[in-house]
Every structure is written in structure tokens, then in C-alpha cells.
Amino acid sequence: MGYGMSRLEEEYYEPEVQNTAGSSSADINEEFSNLHNDIFQMTRIRSGLSESTYKSMSTDRSTISTTKLLSGREIDCSGKGMFSSGDRAFVVGRCIPKYGPELLDRMDSHAYVSQFSADGTLFVSGFQGSYIRIYDVDRGWIVHKDIHARSLRWTISDVSLSPDQRYLVYSSLAPIIHIVNVGSSARESYANVTDIHDELDFSQHEDVQYSFGIFSVKFSSDGRELVAGSNDDSLYVYDLHANKLSLRLPAHTV
């Protein structure tokens, strides 16, 4: 059986010669091989399952699933009450993508913001050129809704879907947020042409003295309110049912 050198050993391999210190290249290669093996063992220990975890699973190493590992941790199969650093690295390593990325769409302007819906079935992306696209993940990433936004200042800064996925709000670097019904059957939504994009004015509070831009917006969990963060060092809460701004909190700096 022949001995195959590793890539590192091949890179640093030299014919056997004697150096001035009296050590031959064979001695140096042996030291390098030992170092290489030490690094390999340390990496395997730190990124692989511990022996105690293997024994507690009572199954073949190749069939240990992440679900089985998490269940074993909950009932403390290993007796440690937690994952070792190697166990954690093993589980997280399984979440690293193996393939891709792949191109799903191409637009004429820069994508500025994107997010999945809460259940992961829809993907929303906002573009600098006044476009918002909603993709249907379960149907091969086809375009579910193509929204042509209105009254933008530079770009769409954020988007948010309502919990029931019927409405979408989008913000810009202005104190106005727009809300649009995305539950209709039509694929195209042109602001105030095919659909009404209602304006929600966040500058109505008595303490607001100058214009500002909204950088983030989010529906509340019940879909009754919007929370927005702006560049005037404030958080805003908008009551959708009352159709008015209900709260301004000087709460952060940018």
C-alpha cells in the first residue's frame, strides 16, 4: 500500500538533504507530519461529536440526525446537561448551505431590502427603482405580486407583511408610509391606478417639528398597529384601526 501525502505535505516536500543544524529534510517532514496530525485531531475534536454523545445515542454514527441530537440534549443523554463545543459545531455545520447561490430574478435597480413572510411561504424584496416584488416560495419562486410604489424619497427603505399576509406596508426616507392590499388576484399593483396605496402620515405628532425619514417598519403581531424607526432618534406607533399616530418615543440615536 502506497503512502499518499497530504496537500500541505506535498507543498512543503523537499528532497532529503542535510541542513546546517544537522537535521535532514526527512526529519523536518516527519515533524511537519506530526504537526499536521495534531491539527487534524484538534479540528476533529472541536468540530465533531464527542465520544460521550456518540455512546449516548446508541446508534451508528452516520445515522445520527440533528433531531435525535436535540432530543438527547433535552433528556440529558450525555450526562452533561448541554452540548459540548464539538456538538454545537457539528449541529451548526449541518445548516451551512451546500449549493448555490442561484439567480432567481434580475431587475434594473438595486435591491435595498428583503425578507421572508412569517411562515416562509412568501419572499418580499424592495428595489431602489420604486418596485416591490413578492415571490411565492412554494411555487418555484414565481412572482406573486409586482408592486409599483409611489412618492419615494431615494429608495424603499423597508417593507412588512401583515400577519394574515393580506396587506403590505412600505417606507421611504420620508415620514409617510404606504399600505397596499396584496390579497387581490391581480399580479400587477400600480399605485393609485390598479390599487389604492393609502398614505399613513407619521409626522402628525405635536412634538414633530421637521421632516424625517423612516428606515424600518413592522406590523404588530395582531396586525392592528405599525411600529417604525426613524432618523429623528424616535420610534413611532401607528394605530391602523383608528388611522392615526398613537405614540412617539424618543428612544434611540443613529
From TrEMBL:
GO CC annotations on file: Cul4-RING E3 ubiquitin ligase complex
This protein's UniProt keywords: WD repeat
Signal peptide: none
Keyword Signal carried by entry: no
PROSITE patterns: WD_REPEATS_2 (PS50082)
Source domain of life: Eukaryota
GO biological process: proteasome-mediated ubiquitin-dependent protein catabolic process
InterPro entries: DCAF, WD40/YVTN_repeat-like_dom_sf, WD40_repeat_dom_sf, WD40_rpt
WD repeat ranges, renumbered to this chain: 214-248
Gene3D superfamilies: YVTN repeat-like/Quinoprotein amine dehydrogenase
Coiled-coil annotated spans: none
Protein name: Uncharacterized protein
Species of the source: Eleusine coracana subsp. coracana
